[in-house]
Specification:
The complex is a heterodimer of chains A (about 200) and B (about 475).
Chain A: H1 2-24, H2 26-31, H3 34-41, H4 44-69, H5 89-95, H6 105-125, H7 130-139, H8 146-151, H9 162-170, H10 175-194
Helix pairs in contact in A: 3-4, 6-7, 6-10
Chain B: E1 2-6, H1 11-26, H2 30-48, E2 57-64, E3 73-82, E4 88-96, E5 103-106, E6 109-114, E7 119-127, E8 131-134, E9 136-143, E10 149-155, E11 160-163, H3 169-176, E12 184-189, E13 193-199, H4 211-217, E14 221-228, E15 232-240, H5 249-268, E16 272-279, E17 284-288, H6 291-303, H7 369-383, E18 389-393, H8 399-410, E19 415-420, H9 428-446, E20 451-454, H10 460-471
Parallel strand pairs in B: 15-16, 15-18, 18-19, 19-20
Antiparallel strand pairs in B: 1-10, 2-3, 3-7, 4-6, 4-9, 5-7, 8-11, 9-10, 12-14, 13-14, 16-17
Helix pairs in contact in B: 1-2, 3-10, 5-6, 7-8
Classes of the chains: A mainly alpha (about 200), B alpha+beta (about 475).
């Protein structure tokens, strides 16, 4: 980049010096094949127009470069923004922008996390071992909320039919987010009762 | 360390100049052709001005009050001085406000020109929040007069806002009073707390004679007080998984602040206090008594990368300690960082300085954070004396912490957990995290480990006393 710029600058300055010398020195002017070029092209306007066309090409090139690179100025950090460093924000980020059709690894991970939380909560609140707690979660006996119970009834995430997902999207809520919300609320209720 | 960048601000002027020249030629208009000369002048101008000097900036920062109460306003005054011998025609400074403190008045930004030796000040106010909050290095942008090139640099001035109430040694004794091997021994002697009453024996000190009993019944008795022995406590701060993990930054700031205050209370009571980080980077300072050791411990909390949640391997957001303390190579055999991945029993003195050495593999990013934490707790267990108690300060944001507590307890080290609660439960994610944390607290308590559930806006000493009351 620096080499290209230096070469262009050298050529440009050389041509400028030649032009100035041609103006002040007839000897230098005679060295330039101006008249031969005019005769070859037909008239002197076409010679100037050819230089203009070259200049126009240069303009287009510079504009394209300017558009592509833009101005690269450092952006000072936004230090006034207060960080919200609270556990769980990463889950909120994971729940943002979920695809409607596909079921991703992110969703499966969140489902697994919720199931583990439910098993731990049931084991503690029902004073039973984890195997029994898992059975109760499988059977959906841990909550009155049907959505939460069905959501965690299996180790594997079972998404609803495509039609149901589309319907949920039309209602303005993602099916997975709605189920996560219902499940977390059910877990909270269960812990409150125990407390 | 600066980065030079060409801004490309004047690149469009060349296009305008060429366009004017082209139109002038093709339309045979000399006046328009002359306009190209104006553009050419602008295109040449950035080449004529001197390149931006590398900014040699000194930053001085004062915070008033230095230890505000939560919610109190703290005034920050920053003086920026040009220590170089060249003009800085276009200087932009942005102070490194702590990530968790909101700016409530003024602005932490300033754009100015500075002569050699010249200085400028900026003043603003932040609202204090519980915990230790470290200022990040100030960002400095220096441009030449034409704005063609720009130098970016950082200027560090280690400043810490320590916000929170102190903790008394009595509260700590109450916290661990339910368990054997705590600060108060079970041996009767010349302490302060009542231990038992017994028959008088010849030679007992007069001040321990139960005169009330003598007045009541005419019998001599002796009151024994619980003898207080010096205990050894390692404060272990859970700093998260490292590698940019700032998911519990607010809780970690509270943990670091609490560690400072608890360390002060323990040293005041003549106990030995050590410091460790649980997570990455790893840090270890062996327990010792005395105010000089306390000063070293506090310096580590204030300046070491281990105690900034999410600090990166290159430690870019962390100023180096002013005196080099807590940095490998600067530490004596008294302590410092020892990488969990180092050979067993070897320490890191002599390693390269800087935050990177705090990480395993000489600053390489940690690929497996969970195993790294396990290695860290394993190394800590090796370092701990069997009589050393561990006071773990943790937001309990993952199950790995519970496993770490079990590992330490299995090794014979008594563990007490102080856990700052979530400040916000305003979303499904934070609500689930609160449920999970609650489950972890109950799991630990079921196994007999005291856990102080330290709620937001709650005084730490009150939280400790509440835990003591529950377990009593």
């Amino acid at each position: 980049m620096t080499l290209d710029r230096t070469a262009t600058r050298t050529v440009g300055l050389g041509l400028l010096a030649l032009g100035v010398l041609a103006l002040v020195s007839p000897a230098v002017e005679r060295l330039l094949p101006t008249e031969a070029a005019v005769e070859g092209l037909g008239n002197d306007y076409l010679l100037v127009a050819a230089i203009g066309a070259l200049s126009l090409a240069g303009t287009a090139g510079v504009l394209a470069l300017r558009t592509a690179t833009g101005v690269t100025e450092a952006r000072p950090p936004a230090v006034e923004a207060v960080e919200r460093g609270t556990p769980g924000r990463e889950l909120d980020a994971a729940l943002a922008g979920l695809p409607t059709v596909r079921t991703t690894a992110r969703e499966r991970a969140v489902h697994g996390r919720l199931r583990a939380a439910a098993v731990a909560t049931v084991a503690e609140t029902a004073r039973c071992d984890r195997a029994e707690a898992r059975r109760r979660v499988d059977r959906g006996e841990w909550t009155d909320d049907e959505t939460a119970a069905a959501f965690l009834a299996s180790d594997d995430l079972e998404p609803p039919s495509l039609a149901r997902r589309a319907l949920s999207e039309l209602r303005g809520e993602h099916w997975f987010r709605r189920r996560v919300d219902a499940t977390v609320a059910a877990l909270e209720r269960r812990r409150e009762v125990r407390a | 360390m600066t980065d030079r960048t060409d801004t490309g601000r004047w690149r469009g002027v060349v296009a305008l100049s060429l366009f004017a020249g082209t139109v002038g030629l093709l339309a045979q208009r000399p006046a328009v052709l002359l306009l190209a000369a104006v553009g050419a002048g602008y295109a040449v101008y950035p080449r004529l001005v001197p390149s931006p000097p590398e900014p040699e900036i000194a930053v001085e920062r004062t915070v008033t009050p230095a230890s505000p109460d939560p919610g109190e306003r703290a005034e920050v005054s920053v003086t920026v001085r040009n220590e170089g011998d060249r003009w800085l025609p276009d200087l932009r400074v942005v102070d490194g406000v702590p990530a968790l403190l909101p700016v409530v008045d003024g602005t932490p930004r300033r754009a100015t020109a500075l002569a050699p030796g010249g200085e400028t000040s900026l003043e603003y106010a932040v609202e204090a929040r519980e915990g230790k909050h470290r200022f990040r290095p100030a960002t400095v942008l220096s441009r030449d007069l034409a704005g063609t090139a720009e130098q970016r640099a950082t200027a560090a001035e280690p400043t810490v806002v320590d916000c929170g109430a102190s903790v008394s040694a009595t509260a700590l004794r109450n916290l661990t009073g339910e368990r054997a091997g705590e600060l108060r021994s079970d041996v009767g002697g010349s302490g302060l707390e009542f231990h038992r009453a017994r028959e008088y024996r010849q030679g007992d000190p007069m001040r321990q004679v139960d005169w009330r009993r003598f007045a009541r019944s005419g019998e001599l008795g002796t009151i024994e007080y619980a003898e207080e022995r010096s205990a050894s406590v390692a404060l272990c701060v859970d700093v998260g998984a490292g590698g940019g993990d700032r998911s519990a930054a607010a809780a970690v700031a509270r943990c670091v602040g609490a560690a400072d205050r608890i360390a002060g209370a323990l040293v005041d009571a003549n106990h030995e206090v050590g410091l460790a980080s649980h997570g990455s980077p790893w840090y270890w300072l062996p327990p010792k008594p005395g105010s000089a050791h306390l000063a070293q411990l506090r310096r580590a909390l204030d300046t070491h990368p281990a105690f900034v949640p999410g600090s990166t391997a290159d430690g870019d957001d962390v100023p180096d300690p002013a005196d080099g303390s807590g940095v490998p190579g600067a530490e004596t055999s008294a302590g410092g960082i020892q990488s969990p991945r180092a050979e067993a029993g070897t320490s890191a003195p002599g390693a390269s300085s800087g935050a990177s050495a705090a990480l395993s593999d000489g600053g390489q990013p940690i690929e497996d954070e969970s195993s790294d934490r396990e290695r860290g707790i394993g190394t800590l267990r090796e370092r701990l004396d069997s009589t050393t108690q561990v006071l773990l300060l943790s937001p309990l944001a993952d199950d790995g912490v519970v496993d770490s507590v079990r590992t330490l307890e299995a090794a014979g080290n008594l563990v007490t957990v102080v856990s700052p609660g979530p400040g916000e439960t305003d979303s499904v994610g934070t609500r689930l995290a609160a449920v999970e944390r609650d489950a972890r607290i109950r799991t630990l308590r079921r196994t007999g480990i005291p856990v102080v559930d330290w709620g937001p806006d709650e005084n730490l000493e009150n939280a400790i006393e509440l835990t003591t009351g529950r377990s009593a």
